[in-house]
Design a protein that fits this description.
The complex is a heterodimer of chains A (407) and B (177).
Chain A (H helix, E strand, L loop, with lengths): L5 E5 L11 E7 L2 E8 L7 H5 L4 H9 L8 H14 L5 H29 L3 H22 L8 E2 L2 E2 L5 H27 L1 H7 L7 H6 L4 H6 L6 H4 L16 H4 L6 H25 L11 H10 L1 E10 L2 E10 L6 E5 L1 H4 L4 H5 L7 H7 L9 E6 L4 E6 H15 L2
Antiparallel strand pairs in A: 1-2, 1-9, 2-3, 4-5, 6-7, 7-8, 9-10
Chain B lengths: L5 H12 L3 E11 L4 E10 L4 H11 L3 E9 L3 E10 L8 E10 L4 E3 L9 H11 L2 E3 L42
Parallel strand pairs in B: 2-5, 6-7
Antiparallel strand pairs in B: 1-2, 3-4, 4-5
The chains are: A alpha+beta (407), B alpha/beta (177).
Amino acid sequence: MNKKTYSIPIGPVHPSLEEPMTFNFEIYGERIEKVNLAPGDNHRGIEFMGRQRNPIQIIYLAERICGICSASHPFAFCQAVENAAGIEVPERGQYIRVIIAELERIHSHILWAGIAGHELGFDSVLYISWRAREEVLDLLEYLTGNRINYGIFMIGGVRRDISEEQISRIRKTLEYYKDIYGKLEDIFLKDPTIALRTRNVGVLTKEDALRLCAVGPTARASGIKKDVRQDQPYSAYADLEVKAITPDVLTGEVNGDVYDRIIVRLLEVVQSIQIIEQCLENMPSGEIVAEKKLVKLLNQLKKAKGEGIGRHEAPRGECFHYIKLAEAEVPEVWKARAPTYNNLMPWAPMLLGEQIADIPIVIASTDPCIACMDRVTILNKANGQKNVLTKKDLHELSVQKTRRITP
Amino acid sequence: MEHMKSEEIIKLFKEKFNDSITNSRIEIKTAGLKKNSYSVIWLEIELKDFKEAVKLLCTIQFPHFAIISGSDTGEEIKLTYHFSIYYGERSKEISLNLTTNLPKNNLKLPTITDLIPGAQTAEREIKEMLGVTIKGLPDLPNVFLPKDFPKDVYPLRKDETGAEKMVNKREEVKKVE
């Protein structure tokens, strides 16, 4: 038997996900034998740009690191600056921050559920869940003025208050999601096709997740109870009882497969609804921002010296920002780390031994901010012959597999 | 598991490495209405004991590794490794930031990927962004910079090897004096 492997590069660009990424697979038959990751096709040098801006300008730059985590990055960044400069956020500001961050989590997880359905060739799920997601986007637009890139975070607090009449609108949206949740659970956890395609696929063991420093739902689905909101409660999370969700809550066991990642995300939608309800009940009155006058704040930051870290549990995991202020207009160092950065390496053990048709769902299962399958080149090493597969072909393979195994 | 307090962790490091610890401090942060607190440890250690310090950290609990941040201070490059320990339980996690300084004429640092494999991407990043040689790291292609990026340019440096000269300033709006 000829034991020759083929190499398949996947990537680097695809319009439906945010950032490009290249995967190089060594394939034997249908089985993946080796995975090489090559990100960086769209490195925008944001940290370099940050060196020419003052901290208030960087908030808006940080917000645009990711289109979906547009509350997570400014949240972590503002915390880092506040820690470095010794600014205390008023309690009401902390509660509003948490409400916005949790609304973002609901929209991000439901968006992911749609993409997961699409990758399996289950497009009605995509339409249902993205329709459901519109409700929370409308609410975010009503509260902040924008569907994404909310522009609500400010160093020392938030820029907009939440009024009484807005609270009733938030409650209405939460009721909507409580109603629709049963439907989502029905689709994802009781449908035999989804279970067939996701059970025991893309397994990440607890040891690997620990060793490779996985974060967020990817780590929790492998049984690590790691959640910044629980481990190191910051902001208003310090008053709330947030518990890291692992799949054994529902099924009694941890497999670390794609199915478990679906469970964790679905349960986190419910958790987010509960967190927002608790916030609305206990929200204190008072100021929303430590310093209203921006010129005064800028002057304060210009004189500040020190370093600080800010951590926030984004929908995809821990988002980490580090800043060093050195009595200058611009920061000396700014380091931003998105959760997908840490979830890069766990892809290798997940993908090993899987089939080509499972690539889309396994890659999508970590909810990457960089995962794109535009074209696939199958390169025959022996004669240098090149076959180019498009994203459409790869998607088609995935859909065919679903049809094939559905009883 | 019995957890050490922040002061005890610093004491542990100081006992093992004596004068190598050039700087240490604890920050206590409070949050929420109940003012619950959490602590952040900052440690600065000399290069010769850096790897041993990471080893010692691994004996407390397998740490969560977040990222390496690096800054160019002129004569030296300052690298800070951001870890956290005691994750997995409510309000127990302690952030630990380990800083070390590398002189610019000898930018070499041992890898920690043998202890924490997940640190590979971050080590590759500082290798290409700051030009630090990581001893023991396999020679892999660039992670974030393009393949045809000039060899001796390190974008996050602030000296003549930085990327300042590569910036296209044609569209720049000049500040009015």
